[in-house]
Amino acid sequence: MRAGVIAVQGDVAEHVAAVEQAGERLGQDVDVVEIRDAGVVPDCDVLLMPGGESTTISRTLQREGIAPEIEAHADADKPIFATCAGLIVCSRDPQDDRVQELGLLDVAVERNAFGRQKHSFEAAIDVTGLDEPFPAVFIRAPAIDDVGEDVEVLATVQGRPVAVRQGAIVGTAFHPELTDDARLHDLALFEPLAAADA
Asked: Of 108, 157, 179, 182, whose CB count within 10 A is highest?
């Protein structure tokens, strides 16, 4: 499996390590590539969209010609895992005119919904598809305000959706790559491929 990590900003190394860990746990070889230029996404089986600063990420994706390749990847029903700012960029409505959204997830997102950096927190949350609570790390985290009818809510915090799935795309408001728990990378990336091969 070839996993591409959009590497224009954010927790790139942490996502690389997490997807490698998930593959190792499942006994599957994973070739992970960091994507900074156009022409790489089409060769990837799965994509990861890390956090960072959503305005910068979205503008860079457009400028470098990576955005249409991500859209084609989604149109082909290939898995995408978008976290924090990645979720914002993938949304249909980031509620910020500075963000050039991809519109891949039918959700509206409120940036910094749980407060600024000093309000960062961790919480053990129940996630649909996982047997045990997940240790979620929230850093300047967004929350999902509105969910389309084709979107499944996988987890909530304080009554607000923080993890969703639509087709082969999973988005989280938190940072799973900052933990030693790779179960969400498995859920978002490996399980859809296994189901497609079944």
From this structure: 182
| Those residues with Cβ within 8 angstroms of residue 87's Cβ, 6 or more apart along the chain or in another chain | 49, 105, 107, 109, 142, 144, 171, 172, 173
Phi-psi region of 191 (alpha: psi -120 to 50; beta: other; left: phi over 0): alpha
Domain ranges of the chain: 2-197
Identify whether the C-beta of residue 144 lies closer than 8 Å to the C-beta of residue 111: no
Annotated catalytic residues are 84, 175, 177
Question: In the prediction, which pLDDT does 65 show?
Answer: 97
Domain 2-197 coded CATH 3.40.50.880: yes
- The whole-chain average pLDDT of the chain stands at 91
In this predicted model, what pLDDT tens digit does every residue of 108-164 receive, in sequence order? 998 766 655 555 789 999 999 999 999 999 887 788 989 999 999 999 998 889 999
